[in-house]
Design a protein that fits this description.
It is built from nine helices and seven strands. By secondary structure, the chain is α/β, with parallel strands linked by helices. It has a single domain, classed as NAD(P)-binding Rossmann-like Domain (Rossmann fold, 3-Layer(aba) Sandwich). Helix 1 links the parallel strand 1 and strand 2. The structure holds nicotinamide-adenine-dinucleotide.
Length: 261
């Protein structure tokens, strides 16, 4: 019996968007450790360079290691320029998004239509544009992986995150349709839907308000919020040869979260 090693990405190349920190950084590091050459996209040049350097010097220097590439995923010209730098890649991880600052939550009735655009731009348009840019080469070479990071706000729905959830749900619908079109060409497309990840400003807010975190934790059977590294093992599996019969799916990585309505 021959079972492919799930973590063998030797010879593969990847772009991970928004990989200058957080979830994207951890996924990029895991892909590099598994052997891929990983392009660290971010709109912030310093974050991209520092992340690429850290991944390479942490031993995530398989055959390729990590390299920075700056682009705003909501800007079509910038994405085209990014693709000129990277050339074709085997793996696209659409990670850049607008994670909600928990304390900026707004009921839909209180939002202004002008404010909806930025959510759709990064969480749906950016995902489609980056995928479209790299897809033709994947189809031609008959191998490719597209993994998009979404949210339980779009998978199950969350109060105060209606527009964000709508954009993420759009990315899930896009993924399911894309998977139907490209499967016969060796290309898979899947989503990873996250619960609340404790990092950055959210971490600081919880440090300052432990009672709020304790309340939220009641919805998490495993008794803790996520870390940015939690989604990385699944991302590597989905991007590997071993993931070739997994497509069109949305996988929650969320500590068993269920909203208490
Ligand atoms: N953090 C959470 O609790 C959480 C929960 C559910 C889903 N998610 C999703 O996970 C993904 C990653 O979240 P995170 O909290 O790690 O992100 P983050 O806020 O740490 O941002 C990661 C990086 O993305 C970069 N970035 C922002 N806008 C960009 C753009 N337009 N183009 C290129 N780079 C850009 C930032 O500079 C940053 O370095 C997002 O898609 C988010 O919606 C996060």
């Amino acid at each position: 019996m021959s079972v492919p090693l799930y973590a063998d990405l030797d010879g593969r190349s990847a772009v991970v968007t928004g990989a200058g920190g957080g979830v994207g950084y951890e996924i990029a590091g895991a892909l590099a450790t598994a052997g891929a050459l990983v392009w660290i996209n971010d709109l912030d040049a310093d974050r991209a360079s520092e992340a690429a350097e850290a991944i390479t010097s942490n031993g995530g220097d398989g055959p390729g290691g990590a390299r920075p590439v700056v682009a705003d995923v909501t800007d079509a010209d910038a994405i085209a320029a990014m693709a000129e730098t990277t050339g074709p890649v085997d793996i696209v991880v659409n990670n850049a998004g607008l994670p909600l600052r928990r304390f900026d939550l707004k009921r839909f009735a209180e939002t202004e239509p002008q404010s909806w655009h930025e959510w759709i731009e990064i969480n749906l348009f950016g995902v489609m544009q980056v995928t479209h840019t790299y897809l033709s080469d994947m189809l031609e070479q008959e191998w490719g992986r597209v993994v998009t990071i979404v949210s339980d706000a779009g998978r199950v729905g969350e109060r105060g995150q209606v527009v964000y959830g709508a954009a993420k749900a759009g990315a899930m619908g896009f993924t399911r349709g894309l998977a139907m079109e490209v499967g016969r060409h060796g290309v898979t497309a899947n989503c990873i839907a996250l619960g609340s990840i404790r990092h950055g400003v959210i971490s600081e807010a919880y440090d300052a308000n432990p009672e709020i975190e304790a309340k939220i934790l009641r919805n998490y059977p495993v008794g803790r919020l996520g870390t940015p590294a939690d989604p990385a093992p699944l991302a590597v599996l989905l991007c590997s040869e071993a993931g070739s019969w997994i497509t069109g799916q949305v996988y929650p990585v969320n500590g068993g979260y269920s909203s208490s309505l």
